[in-house]
Amino acid sequence: MSKQISTEEFDRRFDEGEDITAFLDTSAIRHPNREKKTVNVDFPLWMVNALDKEAKTLGVSRQALIKTVLGRHLQKRKGQ
Fold it and tell me: What is the full DSSP assignment across 32-57?
């Protein structure tokens, strides 16, 4: 549970570089565009095998590989 202080006191402490984390309620923090949604995707067996081989080579899970590759592709397209 966070402590309570006035907004003026909070601002003063923040401006002076003090650690103000004790005064924050972090239970409601949300990261915009970081909410997760589960999706199911069917891949052909050859693709699953190739993903698994690549994931093993990189030392990551299949899911991590898929998210990384897809994320890079989407970021690249976004920048065009």
Answer: TT-----------HHHHHHHHHHHHH
Q: Which helix (H) or strand (E) holds 73?
A: helix 62-78
Residue type, 30: R
Burial degree of 77 (CB within 10 A; 0-12, 13-18, 19+): exposed
Q: Over its length of 80 residues, how does the chain's per-residue pLDDT go in tens digits?
A: 457 899 999 999 999 999 998 888 888 888 888 888 899 999 999 999 999 999 999 999 999 999 999 999 999 988 87
Burial profile 11-35: b = 16 or more Cβ within 10 angstroms, e = fewer: eeeeeeeeebeeeeeeeeeeeeeee
Tell if the pTM clears 0.70, that is, is over it. no
* CB neighbourhood size of 5 (10 A): 14
